[in-house]
Amino acid sequence: MTLLHSGRCIPASAVHKVQSALNLFSLYIVTPSLPTPAAVKEYLLGLQARIVAALESVDGQAFGTDSWQRPEGGGGISRIIENGNVFERGGVGFSHVMGKNLPPSAAANRPELAGRNWEAMGVSLVLHPRNPYAPTVHMNVRFFTATAEGQEAIWWFGGGMDLTPYYGFEEDARHFHQSCRDALQAFGDDVHPRYKKWCDDYFYLKHRQEPRGIGGIFFDDLNTPDFAQCFALQQSVGDHFIAAYLPILQKRMDTPYGERERDFQTYRRGRYVEFNLVFDRGTLFGLQSGGRTESILMSMPPVVTWRYNWQPEAGSPEARLYSDFLIHRDWV
């Protein structure tokens, strides 16, 4: 799309930037500083629908829908694809759950939450393409609030996205990290460097002494300067996911591969499983709060292998993943 101004053609990229700025300006005007969970829920449901539609257009196979209820309160909608044309497994889940007693993973460092009713909602996705040259990706945006009669609500946002390639391509890494920076640019020049480092530190397997992938951005406990700006940041992260990932997927999903590449992919997927079950706060929160196990563990890859003390051949593409990509690096 282009626009004409004084006889000159304005490119679509410029129009998009202006529209994004107007959307953020509008949000600050109409969104109150007090938390409005209903507005967050409306956005998250729309985000889930938009992402699923974009993924279906690439795969050519529809995602299934699994709606569920949680006995203690709330429920969710899990959109799942298995054995698709592109995705071996993928899940884009929405959940909105509530309760009276927080699990240890949430209350351990927040004693002020004791005795409060809580409410959590979010969209979380993990996509495992079948082709080893197409990377696994994770994205999550979430909102949490805890209330008590006669007291001010405690609330915060969290989320982020990160990329886990099996075979590294510098142009893919640069594109993904540029998209992450674009998502945060409107909120200050210092935000992206902080959230990138947070991601590098968070998605790190301490027992392996290696990153899970090439990182991206991660944030949690976001509640300043006010609800409107925090909500705007969450929306920007969610809205940038499709542009961050789909161009990479479409570039790599038809690359020829053989048994060697597939074997390495399933080996590296083991690292993904280890992180999710040992360190991931979202997984721990879901399981400890009595969440729906099938939806919590939909992030697991369908085919995984482990080997004892395996090392890649020196100079191989597999070795290059470790030396050039599984390192903390400024990509943009």
Task: Record the SSE blueprint.
Layout: E1 3-5, E2 8-10, H1 12-30, H2 37-59, E3 64-69, E4 74-82, E5 87-99, H3 104-107, E6 117-129, E7 136-147, E8 154-164, H4 170-184, H5 191-202, E9 204-205, E10 210-211, E11 215-222, H6 227-239, H7 241-252, H8 259-278, H9 281-288, H10 293-296, H11 317-325
Antiparallel strand pairs: 1-2, 3-4, 4-5, 5-6, 6-7, 7-8, 8-11, 9-10
Family: Belongs to the aerobic coproporphyrinogen-III oxidase family.
Binding site for substrate: 124, 140-142, 290-292
Active site: 138
Describe the protein:
The protein has 332 residues and is of the alpha+beta class. Helices cover 42% and strands 25% of the residues. The chain contains eleven helices and eleven strands. The protein has helices at residues 12-30, 37-59, 104-107, 170-184, 191-202, 227-239, 241-252, 259-278, 281-288, 293-296, 317-325; strands spanning 3-5, 8-10, 64-69, 74-82, 87-99, 117-129, 136-147, 154-164, 204-205, 210-211, 215-222. Strand 7 (136-147) and strand 8 form a beta hairpin. The chain is globular and about 65 Å long.
| Low-confidence spans | 1-32
Shape: globular
Contiguous helical run count: 11
How far apart the termini lie comes to 27 Å
Q: What is the arithmetic mean of pLDDT?
A: 88
Structural class of the secondary structure composition? alpha+beta
The whole-angstrom Rg is: 20 Å
**Helix-strand string:** EEHHEEEHEEEHHEEEHHHHHH
Give, in spatial order, the strands making up the sheet with the most strands: 3-4-5-6-7-8-11
Largest sheet: 7 strands, antiparallel
Strand content: 15-25%
| Percentage of residues in helical conformation | 40-55%
What is the total tally of β strands? 11
